[in-house]
Amino acid sequence: MNSQPKQSSLIGHREKAVLHIAKAQLGMSEAAYRDMLASVGCRSSVELDFIKFDQIMARLKAAGFRHISSSAKKSGMHREPAAHKKPMIAKMGAILVEIDQPWSYADSIAKRMFGVDLVRFCDTEQTYKVLQALIIYQVRKRKSTKVGGRPI
Q1: CB 38 within 8 A of CB 28
Q2: What is the separation of C-alpha 145 from the centre of its chain, rounded to a whole number of angstroms?
Q3: What is the pLDDT of residue 4?
Q4: One domain for residues 49 and 97
Q5: Same structural domain for residues 51 and 89?
Q6: Cα distances (angstroms) measured from residue 114 to each of 32, 108, 129, 131
Q7: Shortest CA distance to 41 belongs to which of 68, 7, 13?
Q8: What is the predicted pLDDT for the residue at 130?
């Protein structure tokens, strides 16, 4: 029998891709990237297990890395919104996370209500109305998950 402790499994292609995206987003040099890997005892991303990957990701996030979902990219919500719409867009993002819907859900509301393909192309009043529709849906969803005043 093997008496060595079981090792954590190595990361896959997705995790390696996220590392390289973070490296590019932060403008890290190859030397700085290698130093970061060496700080957790690895010479290459091929040697990373999930525990070490999480340690590296914590450092990258502390340095300012922001992971952008494909849903946000498709809707253009990964770009900075206009200053006057920024609070509404931030609230929409939080609601969408809570109700477990992608940005395309908000885009479909904008399309149905105003014929505008993406929320980011809505004017201020339309953005506000899409936000209100999301709030109404959020409240209904919260009520439907409660039984006797308590969450299910």
Answers
A1: no
A2: 25
A3: 45
A4: no
A5: no
A6: 48, 10, 10, 13
A7: 7
A8: 96
